[in-house]
Specification:
The complex is a heterodimer. Chain A is of the alpha+beta class. By secondary structure, chain B is of the alpha+beta class. The N and C termini of chain B lie close together (about 10 Å). Chain A: GO terms for molecular function: aminomethyltransferase activity; methyltransferase activity; transaminase activity.
């Protein structure tokens, strides 16, 4: 087990509210509260979940030539991004490996890039190494706090407590609001498959905003509870969203992982040549969803064909509370990647019946 | 942490509890708390013979899988189908509705050799 070296400003709050804590990406984070991982998952799908995601990193890019620099560094189309738009993208190395996945916000005077905690240092280094003179890359992670507000009643809650409504903000766009007087950038995005947003605000206000949202939720009759990382993982898994280090990584290219859609081949970007070669050659494995009957599939478990030959491995797996399935994401040989293909997953030495299924298991709110 | 006074325990947190001439097996409140939300249980078929200490099934929580060990020897006479369909019963009521299997014990003296409630309480750090 890795030793956590960092804590968030809400760490003591989590501990004093009964959270089970564990190391994640170098942070001592809440895995679940007294509600339990499954209950927290259901709560987020039913009402409003609050997530302390201050471990996420924020990188700001400014200066002369910043537009061209961002366009070249990340895979998504950015030439049409104007305030208040934001977009999902990948950050690749020259070989097409995924250094990280990120959200890029087009702010009036800068590019605001939200990255994974575990890759924050590597991402910063990568941007800084490639930045031409005139382009400034700044780590804004320490002065920015981030809380996610997710669930079918999240927009209703923020509408009622903010100085201006967020319901008028389009999906994948942002707006400036104030909550309890705290200036906040609200991005209408998330990592659960539910509607809602991610709040960016000054780090010293973390506890005040967190408690304010919980109190106001209760006062307004909108069930609002803190949600730990275990439910965050099952929520994102059902909704088909990748977790770096699992469905995508430096060892995995976006083509085999099904993220060609996040790459704009009309422009030049780092890793494009490698991806074109991979597309030309064809992939040796593909990311699939697998439903397992008779056990919980987990990361690392082997996937076999009906005749028993190894065809790949699970990169994530769990019980999915909303769809009530035991399911995995796995990389398998392309011949076995079609939905409906019978396979097996080896669970603690025993082959268990399994079938390739369509991803995602749960259609995210923005696609409904 | 609740400790059922009528049950006796293994250090690995399974309990056996007399029910007429049979023994009910389950896991302790301490164990279900440590495991977190239980999402899957695999239990033996009725008629299966178990020796004390043998693995009789598996219990999986959100975070991990654990083997289940028989506190006493015997033959499985009933399996809790409700807990197979709704594993969260283990979290909700581990000594009641969340029981796992019922066994006809083959050696009654084995029960006396298990940890009594006081000894089990000590083992998990509670007096």
């Amino acid at each position: 087990m890795e030793e956590p070296t960092n804590i968030t400003a809400l760490h003591d709050w989590h501990v004093s509210h009964g959270a089970k804590m564990a190391a994640f990406a170098g942070y001592d984070m809440p895995i679940n509260y007294s509600t339990g991982a499954v209950g927290e998952h259901h709560l987020t799908r039913r009402s409003v979940g609050l997530f302390d995601i201050d471990h996420m990193g924020q990188i700001e890019i400014t200066g002369q030539g910043a537009d061209d620099f961002v366009a070249r560094m990340i895979t998504a189309k950015v030439s049409d991004l104007i305030p208040p738009m934001a977009r999902y993208s990948l950050l690749l190395d020259e070989k097409g490996g995924v250094i990280d996945d990120l959200f890029v916000y087009r702010l009036p005077d800068s590019w605001w890039i939200v990255v994974n905690a575990s890759n924050r240092a590597a991402d910063l280094e990568w941007f800084k190494t490639h930045a031409p003179s005139g382009v400034k890359v700044t780590d804004r992670s320490d002065d920015t706090y981030m809380i996610a507000v997710q669930g079918p009643r999240a927009i209703e809650l923020i509408d009622k407590v903010a100085d201006s409504p967020v319901s008028s903000i389009q999906r994948f766009c942002w707006g400036n609001i104030a909550i309890d007087g705290i200036p906040t950038l609200f991005g209408r995005t998330g990592y659960t498959g539910e509607d809602g947003g991610e709040l960016f605000f000054p780090a010293e206000k973390a506890l005040r905003l967190w408690e304010f949202l919980l109190q106001r939720g209760e006062a307004l009759g909108i069930e609002t509870k803190p949600i730990g990382l275990a439910a965050r993982d099952s929520l994102r898994f059902e909704a088909g969203m990748p977790l770096h280090g699992h469905e995508i990584s430096i060892e995995i290219n976006p083509i085999e992982a099904g993220f060609k859609w996040a790459c704009d081949f009309e422009k030049e970007f780092v890793g494009k040549e490698a991806l074109l070669a991979i597309i030309e050659e064809g992939v040796s494995r593909k990311l699939v969803g697998i439903e397992v009957f008779g056990g919980v599939p987990r990361e690392g478990y082997e996937v076999c064909s009906p005749d028993g030959g190894s065809i790949g491995h699970c990169v994530a797996g769990m019980f999915c509370p909303t769809v009530k399935k035991y399911a995995a994401n796995a990389f398998v040989a392309p011949d076995f990647a079609k939905a409906g293909t019978n396979v097996s997953v080896i669970i603690r030495g025993q082959p268990r019946a399994a079938v390739v299924i369509k991803r995602p298991l749960y259609i995210p709110a923005y696609r409904r | 942490m609740a400790i059922d006074k009528n049950a006796r325990y293994l250090e690995s947190h399974e309990y056996a509890k007399p029910s007429g001439e049979h023994m009910i097996f389950g896991i302790s409140d301490h164990a279900q708390t440590e495991l977190g939300d239980v999402v899957f249980v695999e239990l033996p078929a009725v008629g299966k013979t178990l020796s004390k200490g043998a693995m009789f099934g598996t219990i999986e929580s959100v975070k991990a899988a654990s083997d289940l060990y028989a506190p006493v020897s015997g033959t499985v006479v009933e399996v809790n189908e409700a807990v197979k369909n709704d594993p969260s019963l283990v979290n909700k009521d581990c000594y009641g509705a969340g029981w796992l299997i019922k066994v006809a014990p083959s050696n009654a003296s084995e029960f006396d050799g298990l940890l009594d409630p006081a000894a089990y309480g000590k083992a998990i750090g509670e007096e």
